[in-house]
Amino acid sequence: MDPPPENKTTENPHATGYATGYATGYATGYAACTAYIQLFVHKLWRRVWEGRDEQPLRIEGDGGAPGILQKWHDFWHTGPSKIADGLFVGSAADAAYAPNLNRDEITLVVNVTEDLPNFFEGIGYGSPEYVRVPILDTPDSSFQPHAEAVKAVLQKIKHVRENGGNVLVHCLMGASRSVSIACLVLMEDGTDCIAEAVYAVVKSKRSPARINVSFMQDLKDKEQWLLH
């Protein structure tokens, strides 16, 4: 059977500027500007000055590691990827871009970072609910010390999806930590129990996926730490 087609947006989701989509629900111009300022500060300080030498080994595609221009495109312009019914994966830029959340009717945002803010949390009626798995994406990172948080998040995602809601899972790039959570969701759904096979499904729908090799090991060892 051919793999499902990659989910792609039909237009640049970040190119319309601040004039479109911010007048409804939680998508206000002030909140959007604040979210992007927070994101810019995080990118500039944490990634450029603190984290550039802490990159882990990743499972790369056939083309190898992407260059800086491709990473820029992946971060700002790919848009949220639909992995399964009610389940989207995206970057922090997607989580900070309110029209995406409105368009995809996101009711739950899963923030798989230790330090990125929950951009639209508590700003008023209609804003999504937020949950967090506080983990870094470094060579020695693992989901296993966060097993209880992961279990709670998986249960929350299942509940929201079963009740017709949509979930956005994001990290910084939407390539590793969030992809790992999406893989766990599919494994819990019974899509497949083989980590590599599930990752291939997610990768086919989320082209920027480049999972940390440590997280792949977590997926392989899921029954040892997540089911106990």
Superfamily (CATH H level) name:
Protein tyrosine phosphatase superfamily
Order of helices and strands: HHEEHHEEHEHHHH
Average pLDDT metric: 83
CATH topology tier name: Protein-Tyrosine Phosphatase, Chain A
The count of strands amounts to 5
Outline the biggest β-sheet: 5 strands, mixed
Going across the major beta sheet, what is the strand order? Answer: 1-2-5-3-4
- Label the CATH architecture: Alpha-Beta Complex
The low-confidence runs, each spanning 5 or more residues with pLDDT under 50, are: 1-27
Number of domains: 1
Distance between the termini: 34 Å
Radius of gyration: 17 Å
Query: What is the global morphology?
Result: globular
The tally of helices reads 9
Work out the helicity level: 40-55%
Structure description:
This protein has one domain: Protein tyrosine phosphatase superfamily (Protein-Tyrosine Phosphatase, Chain A, Alpha-Beta Complex), CATH 3.90.190. It has 228 residues and is of the alpha/beta class. Helix 5 (147-162) crosses helix 6 and helix 6 (177-189) crosses helix 7. A five-stranded mixed beta sheet has the order 1-2-5-3-4. It has helices at residues 29-50, 68-77, 92-95, 98-103, 147-162, 177-189, 195-205, 213-220, 222-225, and strands at residues 81-84, 87-90, 106-111, 129-132, 166-170. The protein contains nine helices and five strands, in the order ααββααββαβαααα. Helix content is 41%, strand content 10%.
